[in-house]
Amino acid sequence: MSTATKNFITVETVVNAPVAKVWESWNEPEHIKQWCAASPDWHAPAAENDLREGGSFSTTMAAKDGSFSFDFGGVYDVVKHHSLIEYTMGDGRKTEIVFTPDGDTTRVVETFQAETENSLDMQRQGWQAILDNFKKYTESLA
């Protein structure tokens, strides 16, 4: 996969939950396995997360029919509790997630460096679908 692109894509949502709950849902492996999929025919059967600068993470994303799976992972560059996560993906691309609390809601803005194999629109739609699943799952915990 080429990482020569400097295109960045931003997806965002507002979660109807306080930042502490949003942070926990985003970062705890047992939660990640519940929401990290772009469509109902996919799931995340495994997740590991060492949330600290220099720590790594990995999530296995798989088709529920067993036809395909891949590991998505990287290393954390910056972790600021309840506010910011920056990481470098396994292929060298960068991602930033900003958590902005506003009372009982939290805005989550995720900006990632695009890859070159899929269209920008397809990547945006996929990452937004995962973020939408995150919102729905986290709000169901309230």
From TrEMBL:
Coiled coil: none
Signal peptide: none
Pfam families, per database record: AHSA1
Positions of transmembrane segments: none
Domain Activator of Hsp90 ATPase homologue 1/2-like C-terminal span(s) in chain numbering: 16-138
Family recorded in the similarity comment: Belongs to the AHA1 family.
Name of the protein in question: SRPBCC family protein
Species for this entry: Terrimonas ginsenosidimutans
Upper lineage: Bacteria, Pseudomonadati, Bacteroidota, Chitinophagia, Chitinophagales
